[in-house]
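Recall that a protein's primary structure is simply its ordered list of amino acids. Everything else, from secondary elements to tertiary packing, is in principle encoded there. The following example makes that idea concrete.
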Amino acid sequence: MTSTGEISNGTTSNDASAGAPSDDVMAEYFADGERRAMGLGNRGPVRFVGAGALHPEILEAYWQHGFYVFEGVLGAEELAEIEADLAAFRRRLPVHRGAKVDIDGNPAIGADRQAQNVIWAKTLSDPVGGTKQAHGRHPVKMTEPTAAPDAPEEVVFVVHGSLQYSDACLRVYGHPDLLGIAEAINGRDFTPFNEVLFIKDPGVGPSVAWHRDGVTHWDSPDWDQGSHGFNLMGQVFGCTPANGVWVVPGTHKLRTVDIAGMVEAAGSDRLPDAVPLVCAPGDVAIVNRQAVHGSFANTSPDPRVTINMGFHRRSSVLGQTGSGIHGTVGPLDEERIARRSRVIGMGIDARRQHNPDEQPFDYAPLAGHDVRFDDDARNELVDYNAFDLSV
């Protein structure tokens, strides 16, 4: 199994952490980025037309920029349920790196799991930039602000396999609009990728260095702008330029990108063409995995918790070998795809039980399969992310 639980800080010759910018410089950069982001025309409610197709204006904007913000997907009642669920979830986190118990002395999340789960990092650090982690796809280290004297030394900032720990997140995973988006872009036989929670607490949340996702298809003769799929990012508390993901529009269309060169040309990690995801609570952003993206350490007073769900085209997955960044290295064959896809059915049924008046999504690959969310399913979800479909 792969694990990023123990990660070292490394640097490159383009180390962007030297000479931290002033608050005024960052504030100006954030404000300018937000102005440009809000002017792109790639945000609005989910709109379907015909037999489940996304509105052409949405598709055009998504493929032009590499991301889109769907507004108001999660309503107030569902958000309240998610917040309550996540509050209980957080009490179950380990009290420190390597601990087997939570704050109440009970077995902690991940204590009895084999697949990667709870990921820690130093407060306000960049844990992977400039290292060989994740196939070296984060070539440049981000600025690491100075933490407050009373800040914790380390914090949890990612939880993998999150659906096995949160019923509320599992129900979001079965949301008919979100699965409809996946189907409209990746086809009726779309596959899952992986699911994580990103936690960027105020004043302590680490950064994620500029990178592009995807390993397998960059040199493929049939590569295109959708070869490595996309992530849906549900925002529980909303997100701002200070705590959210930034994207360089249009870079998903490029087969090669020199991220280190981009940072060197900018003279800092503040890439001039990047724009932030600006979301209200309940918004869900879709971000193409091939786009250059990253986030700064969260020195702001605002929390960010992102329910992250990825999806692929079946043709991008079948017959490939798992990259090992998520899940185990190994053949991505029909058996593994079918096993991993059952989790979508569990999410659909969990949502159906909770929202009986809502029309559930019809996931074509599970037609004729009676997939339910019950005690047996909970057992099946243990370490389910070992079978993530990572390309």
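The mean pLDDT is 92. The longest strand covers residues 191-200.
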